[in-house]
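User: Is it possible to get a 3D structure for a protein together with its bound compound? The compound here is zinc ion. I've pasted both below.
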Amino acid sequence: MIIILLGAPGAGKGSQAELLVKRYNIPHISTGDIFRDNFKNETPIGKLAKEYIDKGQLVPDSLTNDIVRERLSAKDVSNGFILDGYPRNINQAEALDKILKRFGWEITRVINIATPLDLLVKRISGRRVCSNCGAVYHIENKKTKHEGICDICFNPVVQREDDNEQTVLTRIKIYEEQTKDLIDYYNEKGLLSNVSGITIPQTDKEVVEILGE
Ligand code: ADP
Ligand code: ZN
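Assistant: Yes, that's possible. Here is the predicted structure of the complex:
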């Protein structure tokens, strides 16, 4: 099963991906997470990517496509995987098509999380992440048990640097200009399904109706 999650920044791709991981037992591949891991480990890729991420811009396609190609060469993807945050433009979608073709794989379904614009900014500005394990919280909707401390590993939770208002607006603009085109791209291939993206449980219910238990 190969699932692609489409949606604007803050649409909840990561939250839905976590639920899919548990249900289908396949890995969650987030290019944003891969870039952040690289930055945390101070790799050259991480340093380069951070320059773009901090401005809310896309990391160059050639680098992004390379890290995805490499990730999809690992053994743990043999039963399928969930892509979150990739592809983000037509060029990346075409690169992905080539990678999948080489492995003889086909996309099962592309799920577009159609969260209304006014909810996106609210969600992102309240988002907090664990500085150690990356667990995601929200100051209103998903509070930590103890203020400012991760429930899982007890390290401090912080705001992602690219979650400030100015950068968020740039990210949403880039989504509108580039990523939105993928809705038509996959719709024309007959692969697209839309879900509402307003609450996590309702969206999950819609996803299950599309993909099956
Ligand atoms: P969000 O979906 O909320 O924007 P992500 O963690 O997916 O968060 O992405 C954070 C940043 O990482 C993006 O703004 C971009 O700079 C970079 N990034 C992630 N995925 C890609 C991609 N497929 N292509 C280019 N840049 C990417
Ligand atoms: Zn943690």
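The mean pLDDT is 95. DSSP finds nine helices and eight strands in the chain.
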